[in-house]
Amino acid sequence: MEQRCDWALTGSNFLRDYHDNEWGKKTTDEQEVFEMLSLEIMQAGLNWDLVLKKRQNFRKAFDNFEVDKVAAYDTAKMDELCHNVAIIRNKRKITATINNAQAVIRLRSEGIGLAEFVWKFSDNKTVMNNWDHPEQVPSETSFSKKIASELQKKGFKFVGPTITYSFLQAIGIINDHLSYCEFKN
């Protein structure tokens, strides 16, 4: 039997597949990075397994997280999303996702994409942590606080240090697979 991080043993196949194939793996595609940021925001206060179960619904509802399309959403589209029972219908989170797509467009006008912007903080390298126990994995660090602050300065919303830390794990800037996990590298 394969050794996994403890959290990947407690949920659905969606959770295990995410752990095995995505979490902690370097992601630099802007659309994928934007999707992960958006999903991490949707997860706030809930559990990741729930978000992953609804992931295809989110992709459909948010035009596959195409930044330009999401940035152009109007009030009618926001209302549609707030009434979509297939996704998490939190108006603040939906508004933040639309706002963040607009912030990505502003970044582009400065000559930098979202992926490039966040990866520059680690010099384009994955931070490989070496935790032996789940309790050792932090929910935020000075590193995530710094990036959250920089994202906020660029107009991003709903990106506190904890959501930002999870986002950094999701796109592989931080690799927090436990030392015994066979999916660490």
Describe this structure in words.
The chain has a two-stranded parallel sheet. The two termini are 18 Å apart. The chain is globular, with a radius of gyration of 16 Å. It has one domain: Hypothetical protein, domain 2 (Endonuclease III, domain 1, Orthogonal Bundle). It is mostly helical. It comes from Liquorilactobacillus aquaticus DSM 21051.
Q: What would you say about this model in short?
A:
Helix content is 52%, strand content 2%. It is mainly α and 185 residues long. A two-stranded parallel ribbon has the order 1-2.
What's the architecture in CATH terms?
Orthogonal Bundle
The average pLDDT score comes to: 97
Report the helical percentage: 40-55%
Strand order of the largest sheet: 1-2
What would the principal axes of the Cα set say about the shape? Answer: globular
Which sequence of SSEs, written as H and E, runs from N to C? Answer: HHHHHHHHEHHE
Question: The CATH topology is what?
Answer: Endonuclease III, domain 1
Major beta sheet summary: 2 strands, parallel
Query: So what's the CATH class?
Result: Mainly Alpha
User: Approximately how much beta-strand content do the residues carry?
Assistant: under 5%
Q: In DSSP terms, counting alpha (H) and pi (I) runs of 4 or more, how many helices?
A: 10
Question: What class, by secondary structure content?
Answer: mainly alpha
**Count of DSSP strands:** 2
Protein name: DNA-3-methyladenine glycosylase I
Keywords: Metal-binding, Zinc
Binding site for Zn(2+): 5, 19, 177, 181
Pfam family, one: Adenine_glyco
